[in-house]
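> run fold DUF6888 domain-containing protein
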Amino acid sequence: MSNCYQDIHLFRFDDQTGEVYILAGEEIEIIVLSNGIWEFL
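> ok
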């Protein structure tokens, strides 16, 4: 994200599921699952 000059507005780690949620820029939402697979929402 920082290489694309997108501001990261929200970074959340859920310790129960091991998932990471990232909200960046105006419209970019990414979830990183506990197994390392990530996807756009």
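The chain has one domain: 2-40.
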